[in-house]
Design brief:
202 residues; globular
Length: 202
């Protein structure tokens, strides 16, 4: 595997994952309510979607791009609705009084799958990779697997850091503080969802 392409992909994955957005807020919320494992599993869903879209962009998959372009409105509305639903679910859940119990396999799979779908439902994700890989040029075409693998590794590293850092913070702020952050994150998720729906319908 091309080491240079792998490292370049890792840098891209980290750069794409790190900015604060709906997935980051969701990772923080889930970590505070369910523990670092749930938060990290959520982030891995985003990392997997990032890697899939990175590979698609590197390979220049025209059919997939045309599908996304033709169904951008439906995909945007679905993604926005999912964000609003996740936010509403968080607002209804009572604050945790004690440390989160260990997550089971079903909970981890659900956290992973929901964020995978959420990220795949965001057309801006693949468009960002198309723009980035257009700047890379030949490297994207000659080493697509290495680049996509690097994107996954870089993105996953960020989500691991965020989940662990949030879990450490959550242990020191108490139930009331965790609930305040949880509510703020849920409201921000709802705002992101509403904005996504409005943007898709324009």
């Amino acid at each position: 595997m091309d080491a240079d392409a792998l490292l370049r992909g890792a840098a891209i994955g980290l750069a794409v994952a790190a900015p604060v957005g709906p997935v980051g807020l969701l990772c923080v919320r889930r970590t505070l309510s369910g523990g670092a494992a749930i938060g990290f599993a959520s982030g891995l869903g985003a990392a997997t979607a990032d890697a899939a879209y990175a590979a698609m962009a590197a390979l220049g998959t025209g059919a997939a791009m045309r599908f996304l372009d033709e169904h951008a409105t439906a995909i945007g509305v679905a993604g926005g609705a999912l964000l609003v639903a996740l936010a509403a679910s968080g607002l209804r859940r009572p604050a945790a009084e004690h440390a989160a119990p260990a997550a089971d396999a079903r909970g981890l799979a659900s956290a992973f799958g929901s964020v995978l779908v959420l990220t795949l439902a965001n057309p801006a994700t693949i468009l960002s990779f198309v723009a980035i890989f257009a700047g890379i040029g030949a490297a994207a075409a000659t080493a697509p697997i290495a680049l996509a693998s690097g994107v996954f590794a870089g993105s996953a590293a960020w989500w691991l850091f965020l989940a662990l850092a949030t879990a450490m913070l959550g242990r020191g702020i108490g139930a009331r503080g965790r609930r305040a952050i949880d509510v703020a994150a849920a409201l921000s998720l709802a705002a992101f969802g509403a904005w996504t729906i409005v943007s898709a319908l324009r």
